[in-house]
Amino acid sequence: MSLLFVDGWFGPEPGDWQSVWCDRYPGSKRFEQDDWDEPVREDWVARLDEALAETAEPPVLVAHSLGCLTVLHWLAGGGDRPVRGALFVTPSDVEENREEALAGFAPIPRLTLPFPAVVAASSTDRWMTPARARSFSESWGARLIDAGPVGHLTGAHGPWPEGEKLLAPLL
Question: Could you give all domains of the chain from N- to C-terminal order, each with its CATH number?
């Protein structure tokens, strides 16, 4: 089973939970964006599509923050490569948090996902309120999990074994 990690704004951090998981699961892959600091939706979506084209089998997407929106915009734009499932971890609400660098990712697509998905939302995430996470999860047809008071689950959080329990059913 392959995992494809779709990182968010500013990209990978040394020792973050995604790095730990990528090392732990054979066949996992992280791909690079051309510009992690000044994201352009069309470029990020194109890089995701390229990474999906290179997978030997339908992967489970593990998306974090702006990476979640990258997946949604890929689907909204007609992305049709096979995907087994997705774990969306602390998606960013670029509609409520009006960060100029992320404006191109608004509005957030509200579409029914064509694969099983879980949304792990934090009760203390400054980028998405629990109520908004619930609303988006419902529109996507994804199962919502309260990850607790874990903030935005950045690299400082560590390996996040609780998240692996959310990933397991998608594998």
Answer: 3-170 (3.40.50.1820)
